[in-house]
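Example 3.2
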Amino acid sequence: MPDQLLDNPNPAPAQGNEPSREVQERGLTGMPERETELNVAGGPAPVAQVSINRSTVAELERRHILRLQAAALLILAGAAVLTLIYVAKLILVVVLIAVLISFVLAPMVDLLARFQIPRGLGALISVVLLVAVIAGASYVSYSRAVAFMYELPKYKARIQGMMAQVREQAEQIEKTTETVLPSSTDEKAITVKQSSSWTDLVSRNASSVSEIVLALTFIPFLVFFMLSWQDHVRSASVMLFSMENRNTAYVMLGLIARMIRSFIVGNFMIGVFLSVCSIAVFGLIGLPYFYFLGTISGFLSLIPYLGVILAILPPLVADLGHLTAATSLLVIGTVVGLHLIGMNVLYPKILGKRLQLNPLAVTLGLLFWGWLWGAMGLILAVPLTGACKIICDHIEPLRPYGAWLGE
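Structure, written as tokens:
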């Protein structure tokens, strides 16, 4: 036996004790094939594949948690912004009114700058002229109101007759309702009517009125600083953004400024058209102060929804002494017709293409800002919605919302 071992130095391994030559040649490279055979045969999965599956599930769960956290933070941020907008309503409304007025006066300041007048002095002249115009219009309005109050006793009998007719019709409707519906009366019921004088009403609202008046006094100063520091404010606002976003911010601010200017010019053109038509009709009817009433009615008609009601009241009240069914119907028909033409024909033609907002977005914007800020929200809703669209168009994640707001 030892001689045989010396003659054959590489004897064949015994079966069952050592691996075959094929297994030795495969070595480690043969393990995946074996693992594949085990997987196909339904055997247990390899340890590496199980660890990969677990890491994938953990990554998916982590991403899901991050998405939930981002959504929760977005909801909280939106709620915080809405709360801030509602709480700081007075301050934001004053600032936005000052912004609109500054855009109105900006062409005058630019014109004065061409005559070598410094921008600060031109802004001061523009603001003083604006205050003088508002004071003059207020004085004329007050004088007309006082003259109307002096003439009001002349129409006392006519007003009492009209109120008596309304009262009789109301009593007749009440009697008809009582005959149709069963009346339930309780003899033990006691009706308590609380009386309040006008002094109590004034004292309760004195604080809110004083706050509004105090806030309005800041408007001329805000307009002056916005006009005199226009270039500085715009460049400083752009510098608030990061370097890669400054160009987008500069373009976005320019588009918002152009949109606000188009909004103001378009509303002024529509208001002038409605005022001229109202003055012509009121003059033919013979209303007193028809030029004054026509101007007020024409520009009040620009207010969304409430404008048609506000535009009807001045001519009807002014013609209270000579009011007849024909003249009242003619006044109401004129104001309603001009309002429909202005809102449905002129508004889309003049402002629709410039603002690029669809009617549904405008209506929802009026509802939202009116709910937040009341009457001033209705006036500022369209430029605010247009500014939101411009911002959404220039921010990549918000572009679908900008497309939804657009035409």
